[in-house]
Design brief:
Elements (H helix, E strand, L loop, with lengths): L19 H6 L13 H8 L22 E5 L5 E4 L15 E3 L12
Antiparallel strand pairs: 1-2, 1-3
Length: 112
C-alpha cells in the first residue's frame, strides 16, 4: 500500500525569478503592521493636486446624504422613505427587501 505524505507548502511559491535566498531576505509585514495612506499623505505626495485623483471631494458634486431616498416594498408595494441610519425595513409589513424608485431625470437618447 502507498502511504500519502502531506505536501509542504512554501510561504511563496518558488518561481524562476525568485530563489530560495531571495525568499529568506524579504521581510514580510503582518496585517497588523500595515497602515494605509491617509488623505494628508496623499495630498502632500501629489504636490499641487493636479495629478492623480481628487479624493478630497473639493470641487466635485456629491449628493446630499441627509436627503431621504424613496423605495418600494417588495412585499406590499408600499412607498418607504429612508434616511441615513434608518433600518432597512418596510414600515407597514416589516419586509426587508426594498426596491429603489426610478428617478424623474429626463434622459434623451440619440438615434443614428
Amino acid at each position: 500500500m502507498l502511504q500519502h505524505q502531506p505536501r509542504l507548502l512554501h510561504p511563496r511559491p518558488i518561481t524562476p525569478l525568485t530563489t530560495k535566498s531571495s525568499l529568506e531576505n524579504t521581510a514580510t509585514m503582518s496585517r497588523e503592521q500595515y497602515t494605509p495612506p491617509s488623505l494628508s499623505q496623499q495630498g502632500q505626495a501629489s504636490g499641487s493636486g493636479t495629478g492623480g485623483f481628487n479624493i478630497t471631494g473639493q470641487g466635485s458634486t456629491f449628493e446630499d446624504t441627509s436627503k431621504p431616498v424613496h423605495y418600494l416594498c417588495g412585499d406590499c408595494d408600499n412607498k418607504v422613505v429612508l434616511k441615513k441610519g434608518d433600518p432597512i425595513r418596510c414600515k407597514e409589513c416589516g419586509y426587508r427587501v426594498l426596491y429603489k424608485e426610478r428617478t424623474n431625470r429626463m434622459i434623451q437618447f440619440e438615434a443614428r
